C-alpha cells in the first residue's frame, strides 16, 4: 500500500474533494519542473528538479496565497538555483535542507512535497524554523515573491508612488473610513 493510499483511507468524499490535487500539481521530468495546471516550466541544473519542486511547495507553505499560481512561487525560488550554480555552500544548504524535510516527512510514508495535508507540512516547518536553511528560503521569499509586479494588483498595491506625484495627493490622507 502506498503512502497516498494510506492517507486516503477513512476520508469522506467531501474531504477528498477539499484536498484537491495537492500531490499532482507539480511534475518533474528530466531536469525540469512543470506546472500541471498552468503552462509553465522551470529548468534547473545546479539543484535537482525534485529539490526545486519541493522549494515551490515550501514557498507556498511559508507564504500561502490560494489566489497565486505555482508559477509565481517558481519565479520566487529561481534565485536559489542561480545562487547554487555559483556557490557550492548554498547548493549544499538547499539540497541538505530539502533532504531533511523529506526525512522528517518520511514518518508519514511520503516526501514533504507529496504530503497532502498542509497542517502536517506546517508542523515540520515549525520544527525547522530556526535552521539556516529555513531562514535562507524565508528571507529570500519575502522579496522575491512580493516584488513581482504582476502580483501587485492582486494585493491591491499600485507600486511606487514617486513617479505619480507621491501618496499625499493620491488618497493617502483620505480617512473617510474613520
UniProtKB/TrEMBL annotation:
Domain of life, source organism: Bacteria
Transmembrane segments: 21-40
InterPro entries: TAT_signal (IPR006311), TAT_signal_bac_arc (IPR019546)
Record keywords, A-Z: Membrane, Transmembrane, Transmembrane helix
Protein name per its UniProtKB record: Twin-arginine translocation signal domain-containing protein
Organism: Pseudochrobactrum kiredjianiae
Amino acid at each position: 500500500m502506498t503512502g497516498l493510499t494510506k492517507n486516503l483511507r477513512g476520508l469522506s468524499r467531501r474531504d477528498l474533494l477539499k484536498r484537491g490535487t495537492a500531490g499532482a500539481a507539480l511534475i518533474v521530468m528530466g531536469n525540469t519542473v512543470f506546472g500541471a495546471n498552468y503552462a509553465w516550466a522551470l529548468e534547473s541544473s545546479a539543484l535537482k528538479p525534485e529539490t526545486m519542486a519541493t522549494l515551490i511547495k515550501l514557498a507556498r507553505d511559508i507564504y500561502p496565497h490560494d489566489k497565486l499560481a505555482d508559477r509565481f512561487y517558481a519565479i520566487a525560488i529561481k534565485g536559489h538555483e542561480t545562487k547554487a550554480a555559483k556557490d557550492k555552500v548554498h547548493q549544499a544548504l538547499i539540497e541538505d535542507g530539502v533532504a531533511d524535510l523529506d526525512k522528517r516527512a518520511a514518518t508519514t510514508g511520503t516526501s514533504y512535497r507529496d504530503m497532502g495535508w498542509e497542517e502536517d507540512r506546517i508542523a515540520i516547518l515549525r520544527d525547522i524554523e530556526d535552521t539556516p536553511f529555513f531562514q535562507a528560503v524565508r528571507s529570500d521569499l519575502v522579496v522575491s515573491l512580493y516584488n513581482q509586479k504582476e502580483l501587485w494588483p492582486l494585493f491591491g498595491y499600485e507600486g511606487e508612488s514617486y513617479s505619480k506625484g507621491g501618496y499625499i495627493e493620491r488618497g493617502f490622507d483620505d480617512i473617510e473610513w474613520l
